[in-house]
Amino acid sequence: MTPPRYDRGDWEPGDGVFNAAAIAEYSVRLADRLAPLIEDDSFVVLLGGECSNLLGPTLALKRRGRYGVVYLDGHSDYRTTGNSPYVGAAGGEALALVTGRGQDDLTDLEGQGPYVLDGDAALLGIREDDDYATDVEAAGIPVWSALTIAEDPVKAAEGVLRHVARDELDGYWVHLDVDILDAEVMPAVDSPDPGGIQHEHLRALLEPLLKAPTCRGVDIGIFDPDLDPDGRYAAALTDTLVAAING
């Protein structure tokens, strides 16, 4: 299933999310594609391009019930018209969009929005200077920074599981933007930043999150192979992910 090509065209700041119609159409198609896998209780691994890929699985799960999302990312992706002069790239607004903040043609597909309630989300991996961390916390979404994770990834995972493995939830989905990793070990991303976690931290964090019986799957994105000509970063990332998934 090939994602749509995004062309900014005549888009300008203030026009809302560019290519919103294409993203919305693709998200519905992706939700339809995932539906039989979710129905069969399969564990889904979704390899995607950028963070707005999360709209598809969260829509698919919202059709079935109440699910949480564990958002692993070096950035909060919580930009909205309320905290920024403009919005435009859905990938930088993905956590805001799935929790119902943004234009209706992305936040309320099939009348299902918000796909995830604030209290059913968790954000992990942001840097200490994230622009929107205060807004995330004010919404009631718990945050574990990259620094906190690096100090004890197992403890962080345990805290997240207490939050999303509650009886009132039907399960949860994990979103992984690989720029959660420090730029030194993962520069092949759109926005590499220092202050991230190491591969061993990511594996220790992911293993308990992915093996919990209520985890329905994971989407993985933002890795840019054009920035990894000899494949060294892809190889290290693959080793980490395979170990975590098979954990």
Brief summary of the model shown:
36% of the residues lie in helices and 12% in strands. It contains nine helices and six strands, in the order αβαβααβαβααβαβα.
Description:
- There is one protein chain.
- This protein is α/β, with parallel strands linked by helices and 247 residues long.
- It has nine helices and six strands.
- The protein has helices at residues 20-39, 55-62, 94-98, 104-107, 133-138, 146-151, 153-164, 199-211, 232-246; strands spanning 44-47, 67-72, 121-124, 143-144, 171-177, 215-221.
- Helix 5 (133-138) links the parallel strand 3 (121-124) and strand 4.
- The longest helix is centred in the first third of the chain and has 20 residues, at 20-39.
- The two termini are 28 Å apart.
- Mean pLDDT is 93; it is low at 1-9.
Oligomeric state, counting identical vs distinct chains: single chain
| Span between termini | 28 Å
Amount of beta strand: 5-15%
Please state how the strands of the largest beta sheet are arranged side by side.
1-6-5-2-3-4
Using DSSP, what is the number of strands?
6
Classify the secondary structure makeup into a structural class.
alpha/beta
* Number of helical segments with 4 or more residues: 9
Level of helix content? 25-40%
Mean pLDDT: 93
H/E order of the elements?
HEHEHHEHEHHEHEH
- Tell me about the biggest sheet? 6 strands, parallel
Computed CA radius of gyration, to the nearest angstrom: 17 Å
Name the shape in a single word: globular
Poorly predicted spans: 1-9
